[in-house]
User: Fold these one by one.
Assistant:
Number 1:
Amino acid sequence: MNREQLLFKNRRPGETVFLAGYRATGGYQSLQQALRDLTPEALRQRVKDSNLRGRGGAGFPTGVKWNFFPADQPGPKYLVCNCDEMEPGTYKDGELLLADPHQLVEGMILSAFALQTDIGYIFIRYAYAQQAENLRRAIVEATEAGFLGQNILGSGFNFELHLHSSAGRYILGEETALLNGLEGKRPNPRLKPPFPAVKGLFGRPTTVNNVETLANIQHIVSGGAEWFRALALTEEGSGTKLYGLSGHLNRTECFELPVGMPLRQLIEEFGAGVWRGRKFKACLPGGASTPYLTAEHLDVALDFDSLEAVGSRFGTAGVTVFDDRTCMVAATLNLIRFFARESCGWCTPCRDGLTMVRWLLETIETGQGTPEHLEMLKDQLQQISGNSFCALAEGAMGPVAGLLTHFEQEIIDHLEKGRCPFQ
Ligand SMILES: Cc1cc2nc3c(=O)[nH]c(=O)nc-3n(C[C@H](O)[C@H](O)[C@H](O)COP(=O)(O)O)c2cc1C
């Protein structure tokens, strides 16, 4: 297996690489190359051909999204980087910015050139204070070196980049809530359509992309679309991915590995196996909003299509592992407590539905459940899925769907014993 390091190539434990170090390994050469050799259309086409899919969770093809963007429309247009990253089990963007903040800055300048936007914002969660500090310094360095600002490298292209530190809530990661937050409004999601590409920040065309998505752009420029696609281990995949390991593993770190990694290899080789000599029971493959996988899925390839085929999602590739002593009802309750608390309250299925699901799981976990509660849980899954205003509630129900599909017997054991069988 190739272990090509693109995004983590400058990563050293406890160190941050700034301009000199970044340039020493080829940093900003893609920018020079693109401004010299590529038109914005050619760059957009290259990204489309690379089959890069959004790394923020939904996996939407970046090139397709960029083609919806009216790059030729006069007037203000914006590029926004989503660095909210508050989903439990997802910490890859934070790791990237701790190690190498210029990766994002160069990626954003290139993306802005492709989209012909001249203003960009990085929306960063409040808790990422060190990452924000790193970005602040990187922006100053890039401006002083002539990579940001007016007439970049004499090309006539202008781009200014601003850092916006948010108050920090999970809903702010939803792209339209993020835009409201950036405008200083209450971060409720907006109705789509119109999509941000048509009417986004301050009512103007806007593209919102994830940190890791944007950081990939310079590598697609320098290596080419075909090379990028071939980095993946599966036909359907492309590129590398930052896999953030957490949970009951001997090693919980973030690794850059090809898209399409077999789950078993990720756990055994990179996670150094399940901790305390215990057995693998389940995992969330792509952050807290993805349905569980079980031991029968250990040979699945971690890419968007393969995970959808087994009823889950690649999401953010934040892989959280649970050992065989875990109560899956308790684990799901723990996740639902987070999601119910983070609901912005804008729509009923999310505000009231998640509260109801939390209550049902609490009732079952504390041994007070009856078969009726199990039926009500199934009913809530039907009622909430596809009926909420944004994808928060849908995502929140991912682990609940996994619980009902793979661990219904565990729920029944709680009902029959009148207590949690794992306590
Ligand atoms: C509740 C919720 C939280 C989200 N949080 C994030 C986040 O922290 N970072 C992120 O990039 N995308 C997040 N997303 C997805 C964004 O709405 C959007 O799809 C993404 O930023 C697009 O970038 P991409 O195409 O590069 O992946 C979230 C979505 C929802 C519904």
Number 2:
Amino acid sequence: MSWMRHCLGTLSVGAMLSAASVAMAAPTNVSVTPPNNARFLLGQKFDLRVEGKGVGPFSATMSIDGVAQAFSSGAQNSLTTDGISSAGFGGFNLRGYSSLQPGLHTIEASFTDSTGTVNATANFEVFDVRGDRAGARNVIIMLGDGMGTAHRTAARLVRYGATGGDPNGYLAMDYFPATGMVTTHSLNSIVTDSAPGMAGYTTGTHSFNGQEGVFPAHVTNAFYFPRVEYMSEYLHRTQGKALGLVSTADIEDATPAANAVHTGNRGAGTGIVDQYLDESDPADGRHSGTGLKVLLGGGRRWFLPSTTFGSSRSAGSDYAQLPADLIAAWHLPSTAAGAADPTRDLLTDYQNAGFSYVDSATSLAAVPTGGKKAPTKLLGLFGYGNMNVALDKLAKRRNVLVPGTTTFAVDDYHAPDQPMLDEMTSAALNVLNRDKDGFVLMVEGASIDKQSHAMDAERAVDDTIEFDRAIAVARNFAEKVDRRTVVIVLADHECSGFSIIGALNGTVANLQALPPDGSVLSPTAVPARQAAVGTYDLAGFPQYSILADGYPSSFDIDGKLLFGFGASGDRFENWLTKPRPIVDSLLTSSIQAELATAGYPAQPVNRSQADGFFVRGQAVGAAQAVHTASDIPISAYAARAAMADQFVGVQRNTDVFVKLMRAVLGGY
Ligand SMILES: [Zn+2]
């Protein structure tokens, strides 16, 4: 049996050993949830589940610290069990559990099918961070998606330059008093995607890639997975705090959703955007829900009925009726029960729930500010998919076309008047600051990641500068408006193996005059544009000219910074600002088709064949660059230094949750 013991890891084969007539048959894929070594805040809610695959009927048992537990769903000795398990699986759930006993706890479970029984165990820890000092009233998480150390350095070099070995100035995030490093791994890989990357900070636990606010399971709908309570939900339930989500991404995207939505499929946009509202606790009953009061970003396509231009709503990405025990244990209102409703007019539903709605920079700027004049809830949707990036928004604002184009990208994206992230952050704080119970605010600079995937260095760096300007707004709030605020700046993972490799050796005019060398593929031939890279001494100290709006007038200066991508896909590189962004994959297909016709490349490899040299992807072929497993930097600010100092050193991504909760509940 040693081979089997090995294969099953922590599982042990039970009753089947004594049944001589049963050969090697036993249920497979037996697991207990939460996964081994999960940690929970004292009183934080989570779902337990025992599941396995085999030949029904199925039954299961579960105890915690030796005390037998009753399941809230899952009929014993039946074929259907809980009615939500995947084909061939049986599942048994205990929804909405929590523990008030700090320390280590042991779950022991058994799963039985018609051929035998398999046991499974898992440990979990409950931690108590309460203290006797007044805690932070507000938490602001500034999440630069995909932002590694090199992105920060690049933004600083472009924005401020350097002379004689020293930076000429520093970013707002550089001025944060405490900086450390964070590991970014998910439950099933060293390389995370944004869903468990963000959820590690907001739940304190790991999940599989693609999953947010849940633990892995085999169930028939992405919204049936075992849940773990978010920071926003815990603090709304126990303290009445509000939640704000601000992102330059489509608002269904993984990073904002991993603050408020429980799903095993980060792509289930219809259900995700429905759940933001359905579980926002619109009546402010404070038994459940997130307290969502601000939602600003792209993604209008999910709010429009499926029959409307630009809509992406579909039954296939929605949630069906939620299980009764889930609704009961999480105290969800009947309005959150759910139904596949692609024709739902979600814009109207948000407004009926008290949200003011804005759809442009102009209407956002017109939102009243200051005390009671500000609305109590604010929804802003500034594009159909992801918002355009800073470089393309600024082109329109300055009324200066990006070289090589004849139209503005924001016009082509059907979103001509989009706000910058600092403007969105200010608006969010004006609304949230009305809430006397405090708030959790997550602000995402989303396209640092998306443009690094696209290996579009200039757009990635401009978005890092945009993100830093939003950080300055958050810091000002924490320093001048409400000093009971803790602010952290971090990423969910690094993207693309971004690096600053040197600077252009010569002028942009010389670069533009170089011959086409897209077909130079022999290892013995040096493409002219490869020879243009100035390394070491030849890089010198590039100096960009910064306009009054705070951004460089152009990235194409003589001696410009040049960037590389260690986790790259195939591309053609000419070192010049790319005229157009690649087509946003989160736009509805009709707008994507328009952009393709207008000359927007579908993938990085589709641009610059005529004048760039071919760079073979190190990580993938003709696809976008990928995330890396690198640690990411974290910077923290709080008026009380001890709150920020917690984040110094190397820490796990799930430790960030523990430390933020200690700031709120423990006062340091
Ligand atoms: Zn990400």
